[in-house]
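ingest -> validate -> predict -> emit
validate: passed (alphabet ok, no gaps, 338 aa)
predict: started
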Amino acid sequence: MVDRTHIAFKASDRSYFAILKKEIHAIATKAGFSVKRMGELDIIIAELVSNLVKHAGGGQLLVKLVEQNGIQGMEIISMDDGMGMTDVTRMVADGVSTKNTLGQGLGAMKRLSDFFQVYSLKDWGTIILIRIFDEALPLYKKPSRWDVKTVILPKPGEVACGDGFFCTSNTDQIKLFLGDGLGHGPEAEKAVLMAGEAFLNEEETDPAEMIKLINHAVKKTRGLVGTVALFDLKEKRWRICGVGNIATKVIAPGSVKNYMSYNGIIGLNVPNTLSVQEVAYETGQYLVMCSDGIKSRWDTVKYPAILRYDPAIVAASLVKDYNRNTDDVSVVTCKINM
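emit:
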């Protein structure tokens, strides 16, 4: 069981803990978490909320179900705009505190998590990424040649989300599609889900042709904007084509390449001629795609060394700083490991 979107929870004071515990319990129950893991999840949530209230004056938790190696899990992202940490390694060590507490919060979270990562900057804030699984993960897993993560949120107050991400892969290539249905709510969600279904069922490997096929499949919907990005694992290059305002950048430690989409609406008016932009692979490269729920002038340069972190940290940093909070929002990050 994997969630398409995160659920956002506010945590501005301790009174939110009971609500968060109940809501996150319901999600974990749906996924079949054991009683033991539920108890450990409670501790993690309690420590996260406590940290947000004590050290940052409040913040936000993003939660969704994930799966790895067929094992059910949950991803939790904590975001705040607090003072940040200058020495994360020291603060994770047990017994270290800046608020005269026992200093066991971050250490306890790390011990109980299957994956734990902290990104923090002084006077910017902190992002904590946790993944907890119901069963033990394999001790050894062959490193993946690619890693893709998303943060997708419906417009505040909405349940349906008109942003959607879809991905397929084989030994030769990775195919990604990010779509944003016009407007928001159920009809926007219907458009993006129909586009995603067409994308997943299509064996075409040319991004421009894929856009045309999706365009045909969603003619009876309100339409959407979207971008297809394909990475050829043998030729080591990206091939990208999009219509509408999905912002796409290919980011490496020493370079940033922007992709300019075509004007139009998929399902209503796609240009007759579409071409594909190609970008060669560089070591440490990320592809980042954002819907227009993210402000247009986003940049990862302001985050020192963030490309060394899990792609979900990169996505969360953009949501933290550039979310308009007036629309569905999505950030997709794909890291190539070659």
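The first helix runs from residue 16 to 30.
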